[in-house]
Amino acid sequence: MFHVKRAAELDAADELAKQRALFSLPEGLVYLDGNSLGALPRAVPGRLQDVAGREWGELLIRSWDESGWWTAPERIGDRIAPLVGAAAGQIVVGDSTSVNVFKALVGAIRLADDGRDEVLVDATTFPTDGYIAESAARMTGRTLRPVCPEEVLGALGPRTAAVLLNHVDYRSGRLHDLPSLTAAIHAAGALAVWDLCHSAGALPVGLDEHGVDLAVGCTYKYLNGGPGSPAYLYVAARHQERFDSPLPGWTGHANPFGMTPEYAPADGAVRGRVGTPDILSMLALESSLDVWEGVDVASVRAKSLALTDFFLECVQAYVPEGRLELVTPLAHAERGSQVALRCDDAGEVMKALIARGVVGDFRHPDVLRFGFTPLYVGFGDVERAARVLAEVL
Amino acid sequence: MFHVKRAAELDAADELAKQRALFSLPEGLVYLDGNSLGALPRAVPGRLQDVAGREWGELLIRSWDESGWWTAPERIGDRIAPLVGAAAGQIVVGDSTSVNVFKALVGAIRLADDGRDEVLVDATTFPTDGYIAESAARMTGRTLRPVCPEEVLGALGPRTAAVLLNHVDYRSGRLHDLPSLTAAIHAAGALAVWDLCHSAGALPVGLDEHGVDLAVGCTYKYLNGGPGSPAYLYVAARHQERFDSPLPGWTGHANPFGMTPEYAPADGAVRGRVGTPDILSMLALESSLDVWEGVDVASVRAKSLALTDFFLECVQAYVPEGRLELVTPLAHAERGSQVALRCDDAGEVMKALIARGVVGDFRHPDVLRFGFTPLYVGFGDVERAARVLAEVL
């Protein structure tokens, strides 16, 4: 009973607890999979009705101007910017994360000195980054070298053009040291490209502060943009003038309606745009970002650590020793906003958890993954999740 | 008055007239811009509510399986297939047209014989195709050669790897001869890549019948998928096994949830997938395709030609000779589903038309463009558009 009481105390003192009312979540569900698909912000369905019914159905083509459709990619980019520590004008929304990895990595290779023929990629990355990095290297005549994040320092050298790393490992939940890795990459004369899929919206990133060169991220995890919502691309202001996109679509043109046969790239973040923006998804994302109004990322991080700490505490109290192996690092400096636990029968265990209203996810072959989203997960949820996990085990 | 009476007769005899009730269009508006943004199918807002509120909000992550989200790209591709004359299993939906042009053209270059170092592109194309083709050529070490469609035959040769052409010219509305151009490209040993943005949903394409190699198209014009809705990629079945995408994202992997570091491409159209599908836009598109149930593309084409013929007839009757120059070819075999008219003050004329409830669009510097979408434009609309045009002029 100690942990139930403690959860109630923590919830009562939680300054972010009021944000949960902004989300629509099924009654009684403990949703610890927001690191895969964020929950639905309540305002989104109404906004979608307005976009489809009025902006599309009534205003039709006029909405490209009058409803601000045309400028949505950079406008929404500026809404995401403060969440990842970027000044305005450096982020543009659109395309999938994979497509943005391609833009960012080819862009980084082209920004690097010509003689540098090697690209390092996080070997533990979410696979798509590695697949796309392989294509980016192949199409620019570079060699791709997969290395574990802890091997990056030793692998950097005069041949390194660019390094693609994940801020938080999607499987283990390990948080990598973005400031020091970026500094080391720069010291070696290379460019740092960061994938923020599992960190943006859960912890401070500090893109500008730490001098990151390029970055990408999805918006459907901690940013709650909806299933497969558009991803984003960050190109640091100092690189924008030389950023040479491998996907120079017409909406990234300096004068897109001039319809000229020569490509003249736009200034600023807009250069990262490709085709016609996908308005329904994009404006749903814009609406979903309202839940961040007045929220400080530092307080999100504080709650996130408190949630994962408390989960580990409850698991330790409830689950017999030796039944689970902790995959996520204990040190706060190395922990994202998820807890990964290993057990042989993880697939079956997750099915049983879901059947009892505790939703996490299973990562092949033996990992239970629980994501803690500070805007709508409370300490009571955490206690219940650990209790149900113990029951299932 | 003759043309008013004639319009009423044509509308009364129009077997597609009943489809208009499936669309939500503002009262009294003559919408001739469906070749830029198709009108809203009535069913879409309700479907979006269900996708956002129930599938996302209640089922959450389970919807990837239970609501069929994961297979949406290939399922919706199979819905588009009959509209462009393709058997099932060759079309996948996702990404923008620009991104798909990149996949298709790089794919075609890689399918062509190694020694072929030249890529031909329609010099009159919608600009993004040319910009992306330039990048595709650059990144594969080929030379891009822009040629007018009528110059293609003379430009083909042993150096030609691939040719990217538009089925219908976005500006003039000219329909190019896909069967004979494709045959000529094949006779030269090259691959034909067609952009169907301005033909799919307006006229028969016959991708399989004419042996097209790869094709792309958008879904927000004659297919009414919504602003910036996902585009599609066609890879002919005979090429799929060797199709080597420059954007090998995880969702095109043979075993995407295996999360293996090596890329093993899926069989079939699925290989053309890249990142996580954008579900809100994709399922809105799927819903919008219901308006095609029971509709035969041949009857759409017959009505489209009748609409453009009647528009030209009314314009000739109402507008003083010499005031407008016809840009679109008169021959049916060379006409898409739009009429482009040139006049010096086209920008001002279009503004005045729109102010009077007749919506077409203006293409820099001097073109009035009117799109005729057979599913929701009637002959009465056409007569009124011509009459208002004459008044404005």
TrEMBL record, chains A, B:
Annotated keywords: Hydrolase, Pyridine nucleotide biosynthesis, Pyridoxal phosphate
Residues annotated for pyridoxal 5'-phosphate binding in this entry: T97, S98, F126, P127, T128, D129, D195, H198, Y220, W250, T276
GO molecular function: kynureninase activity; pyridoxal phosphate binding
InterPro entries hit by this protein: Kynureninase, PyrdxlP-dep_Trfase, PyrdxlP-dep_Trfase_major, PyrdxlP-dep_Trfase_small
Gene Ontology CC: cytoplasm
Catalytic function, reaction form: 3-hydroxy-L-kynurenine + H2O = 3-hydroxyanthranilate + L-alanine + H(+); L-kynurenine + H2O = anthranilate + L-alanine + H(+)
Modified residues annotated as N6-(pyridoxal phosphate)lysine in this record: K221
A biological process from GO: L-tryptophan catabolic process to kynurenine
Family: Belongs to the kynureninase family.
Physiological role: Catalyzes the cleavage of L-kynurenine (L-Kyn) and L-3-hydroxykynurenine (L-3OHKyn) into anthranilic acid (AA) and 3-hydroxyanthranilic acid (3-OHAA), respectively.
The protein's assembly and partners: Homodimer.
The protein's name: Kynureninase
The encoding gene: kynU
